């Protein structure tokens, strides 16, 4: 039963196309594959995107960690995961290479690229296509064959293509982004009145530069009391301000609440960012 649920045939491919899978941009994009379409081994993830304002679907931890980096980068404007490749093109490429096109039983499947990313660079829009694989997979001849089809596809489209493995993931940076990412917005919090948390965030931001030697933990406990908030609310708001980049700090070392506040810098446009 499970095998039939996840199997592909021409009818299912036609249905996905009719549903608009692999089409759209930003909030309207629909990935070709979601976590419901692929057999799960406990490593799938659904994460709300900062850039796109939609929920993204990832089929592995490496995809999730790669997404965190793209979503954090200021130059990235859109992220499309599980992007479908035109099957007629991939069939021709496979034939040219004299290798078998990926298939499911009797059906040649629609190949996908793990990420298609839009980047604004020097006033121009560029696209990056990235395949995400465990490094051990790159030792398998069949995996290399399929990646070569994908590589040639994007070369023909004039799009920069590459492979990302776990060896390319900076652990501390990704850990920090994952810690901050859920707090980009405060909409999920129940507030005593509209604008409550935004108001408290601005007060925290104003006070932070005045206590450079105080640890983050000490500062947050003191501000919870001073601003009459629940214990933990100040740290939550610091995470929000970091996620909004109203505060910056070193990202290549795991953030801890024992850091002195001098580690956290307030840019000059903090009021605009904090108000979001």
TrEMBL record:
Source organism's superkingdom?
A: Bacteria
UniProt GO MF annotations: nucleic acid binding
Q: Where is the TnsA endonuclease C-terminal domain?
A: 168-251
- What Pfam families has UniProt attached to this entry? Tn7_Tnp_TnsA_C, Tn7_TnsA-like_N
Q: Which InterPro entries match?
A: Restrct_endonuc-II-like (IPR011335), TnsA_C (IPR014832), TnsA_N (IPR014833), tRNA_endonuc-like_dom_sf (IPR011856), WH-like_DNA-bd_sf (IPR036388)
Q: Which organism is it from?
A: Acidithiobacillus ferrooxidans (strain ATCC 23270 / DSM 14882 / CIP 104768 / NCIMB 8455) (Ferrobacillus ferrooxidans (strain ATCC 23270))
Name of the protein described by the UniProt record: Tn5468, transposase protein A
Give start and end of each TnsA endonuclease N-terminal domain: 74-166
Q: Which CDD domains match?
A: TnsA_endonuclease-like
Q: Which SUPFAM superfamilies match?
A: Restriction endonuclease-like
